[in-house]
Amino acid sequence: DMILGNAVPKFKLVFLGDVYVGKTSIINQFMYETFDNNYQTTIGIDFLSKTINIGDRPMRLQLWDTAGQERFRSLIPNYIRDSSAAVIIFDVTNKQTFDSIDKWIEDVRNERGNNVVIVIVGNKVDKTDERVVTKEEAEDKAKNFSTLYQETSAKTGQNVKELFNGISKALSEDK
Ligand code: GDP
Ligand code: MG
Description:
Bound molecules: guanosine-5'-diphosphate, magnesium ion
Oligomer: single chain
Structural class: alpha/beta
Strand content: 15-25%
Shape: globular
Distance between the termini: 24 Å
Number of helices: 7
């Protein structure tokens, strides 16, 4: 139905965070319920779309993966432009990726101010023996930056749906 289709609100979600934290894997898990142990080369298109329902309201999410732009920070502001939400991911087994979060948040705030939902994601929580960043540390950072926080495993799928539901709820409350 074209009329109903046009009425579905669209939201741009950008996925940020250092290389190898699991950005592409989280998107693949959410879109296709699959996981691959290899580095996920980003598909050669700008974004993937999925409609989800919050209550009885459909919302169209456009998921913008970072295709190696992580390494070229000058490209990031352009990419963040027009985003409704920023999903900033770190790897709970890698402290450096957690420290990088501050800079990613700064990039988002510089571009979007407060007109954006930000969620920090601690990914790879299935690797319990190798974990170096605690949930408490991550929650503290989220509190300091006034963002949401979610722990995920793109590998097992743990909390991946919850992540997207949480973002969608925050977006629908925003509007
Ligand atoms: P990106 O560079 O941020 O897009 O990271 P990728 O999605 O390519 O993932 C980098 C590597 O981490 C790959 O080898 C993935 O299989 C692995 N990986 C991603 N998410 C998880 C996870 O939740 N648990 C585990 N154990 N490995 C993961
Ligand atoms: Mg990737």
